[in-house]
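Run log, item B.
One chain of 222 residues. Sequence copied directly from the ordering sheet:
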Amino acid sequence: MSSASRPAVEDLTTRARIRDAAIRRFAADGMEAPLRAIAADVGASPALILHHFGSRAGLREACDEWVLAQISANKSEVLGPGGATAMLTQLAHVEGYAHLVAYVLRCLQSGGTLAVRLVEQLVVDARAYLGEAEEAGTVRPSRDPEARARVLTEMALGALLLQLPGRDEHLDLSELPAWLQAYSNRIILPLLEIYTEPLLTDPSLLDAYLSTLHQPNRSSHA
């Protein structure tokens, strides 16, 4: 890259400040937070945001990439058998990361590229640690390990999203770590019961379903 096309140091700093302000504003007020609010947070103008990012979509893409990179860099230290909820709860308690967790939750709430990428990565992680637990003998093998990992991930994220305020309602970032911890504490007992003591005492429903999987597809002979 030539020196003429390389952004100045001041531009890079301004771009980072706008990006960080946008992450916090989107986390607190939802993904529809206006650009003028973000601009006010950094003492700039909406035109300056467009100068650096081209569009609102460009700003969101920059925020998504930054947050995903930060989550990925720290995931190995916080992610374990507790799954998605445990990862977000623990990460929110890492100093300075609560706003990133809130941003992730807002992305999951509104959908989009980061939501899809994050869910898929969490499924991969869940598949990996459940496989390790199977080998250690602490988790039962699954007939479909991929499907089990996906269901557990989607259940955890879906339940968590139900606790969030509406998409356009304010989320107090300073209260998020305590809020997530309280939520985790509330679900630990029932989850351990479900995982340790099967909800159904009779396997007949599972047996009946499994029997249908081995039946020929009658529709193909119609």
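Observations after the first pass:
- Confidence is low (pLDDT under 50) at residues 1-10, 76-81, 218-222.
- The two ends are 64 Å apart (CA to CA).
Flagged for discussion on Thursday.
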